[in-house]
C-alpha cells in the first residue's frame, strides 16, 4: 500500500482514530516504504492530511514512539525507526502467575537511575491508565549490571495515587514498591499478562546497552492492576546473550 493510500482519507473527523493512523504508518515503516530515520509528517500536516484534529494526530505519533516505530527529535518533529517485521518477530502473551520481583544473581548490581513525576501528553500510557493529558504519573527507571556490563534495563510507570501510598517510590533507591503498596493500601494487585517480544534497539537503547541501532532486544511489557484500575505499566529489556528464565503457574493461554 502506497503512502497516499490512506484508509479513511476524506471521511469525517470523528471516523478517524489515532490507532488507525498509527497502524498505517507502522506498515509503511515495516515495509520500508518509509525508511529508518526518514522524517514523519508534523502534527499539523498529519491532521490536515487525515482530516482529523491535532490531538488525534499527536496521539498517533505518540503511539508510534511508545511502540518503537518512531522517535521524537528535539526541535525537529519525529522520524521513523525501523523494527523487525511482524512476521519475523517473536510476540507472545502469557497470563499466569510468576514469582514477584526480578531474578538477581549474587554478582548482579541493581541501580535505580531516576524516580519522579512526569507529565503525560496523551497517547498510549494515558490510555492505559485512563487519565487525561496533563496528568502526572510516577516513573522509575533502573538497570542491572553484572561484572560491569549492563544486562537489563527497565522503566516502571505508576498510577498517580501510587506515590500517596508509597512516597519512598519518589526516591531513586530500591524499595519493593508494589509490595509496599499492597501492604499499606490493602489492595491486591495482579498481572493482566506478560507480553514478550523481540524488538530492535533504538538509538537510545543501543547507547544504553553498547549495541548498534537495530540489534535485537528481548522485551517484556507488563500491566499490573488491582481490579479497580491499572497500578503499574512496566517495560523490561535484555540484550542478546543474556539467559532469561521465568516459571509461570496457573497459565491461561492467550
Structural class, from secondary structure content? alpha+beta
- By DSSP, the count of extended strands is 10
The top-level CATH class of the largest domain is: Alpha Beta
Q: Would you list the SSEs in sequence order as H and E?
A: HHHEEEEHEEHHEHEEE
Determine the CATH topology of the largest domain.
Chorismate lyase
Beta fraction: 25-35%
How many discrete structural domains?
2
Compute the separation of the termini in Å: 30 Å
User: If classified by CATH, what would the architecture of the largest domain be?
Assistant: 3-Layer(aba) Sandwich
The largest pleated sheet is described as: 8 strands, antiparallel
Helix content, binned percent: 10-25%
Strand order of the biggest β-sheet: 4-5-6-9-8-7-3-10
Average pLDDT taken over every residue: 79
Cα gyration radius (Å)? 19 Å
What form results from the Cα inertia axes?
globular
Number of helices: 7
Low-confidence stretches: 1-5, 84-89
Can you characterise this structure?
This protein has 254 residues and is α+β, with helices and mostly antiparallel strands. The protein folds into two domains: 71 residues, Orthogonal Bundle (Arc Repressor Mutant, subunit A), CATH 1.10.10; 163 residues, Chorismate lyase-like (Chorismate lyase, 3-Layer(aba) Sandwich), CATH 3.40.1410. It is 23% helix and 33% strand. The strands form two sheets. An eight-stranded antiparallel β-sheet has the order 4-5-6-9-8-7-3-10. A two-stranded antiparallel sheet has the order 1-2. Helix 2 packs across helix 3. It is globular, with a radius of gyration of 19 Å. It starts with 17 loop residues before the first helix and ends with a strand.
